[in-house]
Design a protein that fits this description.
about 300 residues, mainly beta, 4-stranded antiparallel β-sheet, 2 helices
């Protein structure tokens, strides 16, 4: 993940060995400017995701990380050190022990779930979602480290990505190794839409220009583009983007300004693709606004939502 708030351009890196590292791209060195250590709260299992946050009250750079060790951790850059705070410990739902007791014991005696991904709400900065290897998604708050606000029994296998919608404040998407992408209203326990893509889904991302457009990538090297406003049951585009067999496409990103996407695979390659005109109609609409996008998604939710479902 990247920030330009202090150094002009800096990035954080998650490592399989449990470390998190911060690099200053203005420095002509391959060594990180900050690196977590065992004494300084380093994760004990692989780190799967990192994300910059807004500067704290002291205007210090800070970011979050999630790991298979069951910790969601906040890191603050102070002088020449990384200072950490565990925001929440992801306990297994079958654990009957009071979480407050477990946290006070530093997690001892508690079965921790493997965290795989997280995402912070676009407008409510204390609210975030956490995906786990067991298939559950937890809705959490920075203000409550001892409990989840809600838990969704989302998937049958590991959750690889959770993403809040860029426009609608209640909607998020998830994807999993169980071959599915699901669209949720966070006030409801069941998904609004479920799509079976026929292979493990490595990433799902909402577009920056439409509330109803999202993309997903699968282990068989395919990219899927959906627009729920055009087609509620099938992708509007499916394309294979890898040249070699058994290459897994693992990540996807929409360009914030141009009709392009970037995809990455498990061989370390990145590709950029231009969206065809029929996949970017929203960019040409003069009536485009955040309010209209929210209304468009809300209309879809009303069509599929059962009045008694909660």
């Amino acid at each position: 993940d990247w920030t330009v708030k202090i150094w002009g351009s800096s990035g954080i890196n998650a490592e399989y060995g449990g470390s998190v590292a911060v690099y200053n791209l203005r420095e002509k060195t391959n060594e990180p400017s900050f690196l977590s250590s065992a004494k300084g709260g380093k994760h004990t299992d692989p780190v799967w995701q990192v994300c910059w946050q807004e500067n704290d009250l002291d205007n210090q750079l800070n970011f979050f990380s999630i790991s298979s060790d069951g910790r969601v951790t906040s890191w603050c850059l102070i002088k020449n050190e990384l200072h950490y705070t565990d925001i929440i410990l992801i306990r297994m739902q079958s654990d009957a022990i009071e979480m407050e007791t477990d946290v006070s014991m530093g997690g001892m005696g508690m079965d921790l779930a493997c965290g795989t991904c997280f995402d912070f709400h676009k407008s409510t900065d204390y609210l975030f979602l956490v995906g786990t290897e067991e298939g559950k998604i937890h809705k959490c708050s920075k203000h409550y480290s001892s409990q989840f606000l809600d838990t969704y029994t989302a998937h049958h296998m590991a959750v690889y990505a959770v993403r809040w919608n860029n426009f609608h404040p209640r909607v998020f998407a998830s994807c999993s190794a169980d071959w599915t992408v699901k669209i949720w209203d966070h006030n409801y326990s069941d998904p609004m839409f479920t799509f079976d893509l026929g292979c493990s889904v490595g990433d799902v991302v909402w577009s920056p220009y439409s509330a109803t457009v999202f993309g997903a990538v699968t282990d068989d090297g395919k990219v899927f583009i959906f627009d729920l406003a055009q087609e509620k049951y099938e992708p509007i585009c499916t394309q294979s983007v890898v040249e070699k067999k058994k290459t897994k496409v693992t990540h996807l990103a929409f360009n914030q300004h141009y009709p392009m996407i970037a995809v990455g695979d498990d061989r370390g390659n990145a590709r950029t693709l231009k969206l065809s005109p029929n996949l970017r109609k929203c960019l040409k609409e003069k009536a485009y606004s955040k309010e209209s996008e929210i209304a468009k998604m809300e209309k879809l939710l009303e069509l599929v939502r059962e009045p008694t479902a909660k």
